[in-house]
Amino acid sequence: MRPPHLFLFLPLFLPRMWGDPEAEPQVFQVLLTSLFANISSTEVSGLALLGDVPLFALEPADWSLRFHWPWARRATDEGDAERIKSQTKMLLRNLVRYVHEVTQKIQLDYPLVVQIRAGCVLHPNGTVWSFMDVGAGGRDFISFEVERQFWEPRQPSHVAELVSKSLTSMKSISLFLQQLLSSSCRDHILTLRRYGRADLERQALPVATLSAQALSPAQLLLLCQVTGFFPRPISVAWLRDGQEVPPGPALGTSSILPNADLTYQLRSTLAVPTGDGHSYTCHVSHRSLGTRSLLLPWGSPSSGLLSGSGVVCAVWMAVPKSGPACREDKVKHF
Ligand SMILES: *[C@@H]1O[C@H](CO)[C@@H](O)[C@H](O)[C@H]1NC(C)=O
Ligand SMILES: *[C@@H]1O[C@H](CO)[C@@H](O)[C@H](O)[C@H]1NC(C)=O
Known about the structure:
By secondary structure, the chain is α+β, with helices and mostly antiparallel strands. Helices cover 22% and strands 37% of the residues. It folds into two domains: 6-200, MHC class I-like antigen recognition-like (Murine Class I Major Histocompatibility Complex, H2-DB, Chain A, domain 1, 2-Layer Sandwich); 207-333, Sandwich (Immunoglobulin-like), CATH 2.60.40.10.
């Protein structure tokens, strides 16, 4: 048994250095889905993203762009963006024609769904890694090796080989794609970051709540829900008597999901034995909190874990003057 007074000397918050946002890889990508219903009907829809921030959508009806943010529109209007937009639309039209031609030539069956994912990753050291993957019927089909201007089959089929070979022979398209996916894509990321700075580099504080649910008479599931934070990187950990609970089957953390308002959410759970006499705390660190942390303690040995209601305090650590700011939440009854 650990003597209880030791807990006082354990660090309750872990100071953390949040890097400069520019120091993370930036990903720009376009996702296109085309439904080839029959020889005379094609519907193309698309979405462009910076990281997981949606920038614009391609309207299936007239291929116009619908922007999610004024700055995304301004960034897309800059420089020779007009030329790139019109050339990209021409390429798309040619692509649609090409798919219909291939479908007839080798007698594939309609309907056909073709998906494209293309874009680039801009690394903090300034290097660009470009990608373009094509799927057909929900399976990997071919990829464009941007550096080598070369198409490669991604499935062992005659069709994938034939299409790769025929696309590789279209040198002017490969050259255009290489420029589009490397230098133009990199420039576009930099322009987007410049125009969207106010939104992309803002910091939104996480809001956290702690609740519990009885899994069985002997087991309680503690649920720490964290939402409203931006940017995306966050750390949510559980402390047992002030010490971080190591990864294990009792611990469950969701992936970080986007909210509609350009913030993120995450939930973390910890299964604990009912009334085991330990104290449990959900510990949240985020860039917007600086060196402080949110601490949400659950119950205490004396308060009784199955009382059905609890006080959830989000305590600002390491703020000498303002003292703890507690928010009370009623915990749902189950
Ligand atoms: C092709 O598909 C479209 C959309 O499903 C449909 O409206 C149209 O009638 C079809 N045309 C032919 C020739 O089958
Ligand atoms: C730049 O960073 C990427 C990712 O960390 C790395 O793979 C690449 O080798 C680096 N390139 C140079 C020239 O340092």
